[in-house]
Design goal:
137 residues; mainly alpha; 4 helices; 0% strand
Length: 137
């Protein structure tokens, strides 16, 4: 793998972050029910975290000499808070897999500092995933 291929993978991670933002914001706005205020606040906080991650990936892509492409897949519509949480959990689980792989790829390219930065983001994503899992138990 070369830097260009790695930057393309980071671009994919950037897309995933914006997709997560799209989901969190859509769900925060469309929540209904007794837990609305609590879940709305949590979803808004998660969207803010994801925006920070997106900025990180955009910056790294640009540092490598490429132009970050900003895009997002629209949120998957959900009919209940439980379904929203299930969808978000699925997104977070895939993100955990991707970032674990990305940290290893960064090391293989000799980008040890970047690997540490990605692992720090991974730790945050693990927290998001675990919180969502606990909400479904």
């Amino acid at each position: 793998m070369d830097i260009k291929q790695f930057a393309q993978l980071l671009q994919s991670d950037l897309l995933s972050e914006f997709t997560a933002i799209s989901h969190y914001i859509t769900y925060a706005a469309t929540l209904r029910g007794l837990d609305r205020s609590q879940l709305k606040e949590m979803f808004e906080e998660e969207a803010s975290d994801e925006l920070g991650h997106a900025q990180f990936f955009a910056d790294k892509i640009a540092t490598m000499g490429f132009i970050p492409q900003i895009a997002a897949k629209p949120a998957t519509m959900a009919s209940s808070p439980v379904q929203m949480i299930q969808i978000l959990l699925s997104l977070e689980e895939q993100t955990v897999i991707n970032y674990s792989t990305r940290a290893d790829q960064a090391i293989a390219l000799g980008l040890h500092g970047l690997s540490v930065d990605i692992e720090n983001i991974l730790a945050t994503e693990l927290g998001h995933r675990d919180e969502l899992k606990m909400m479904l138990e």
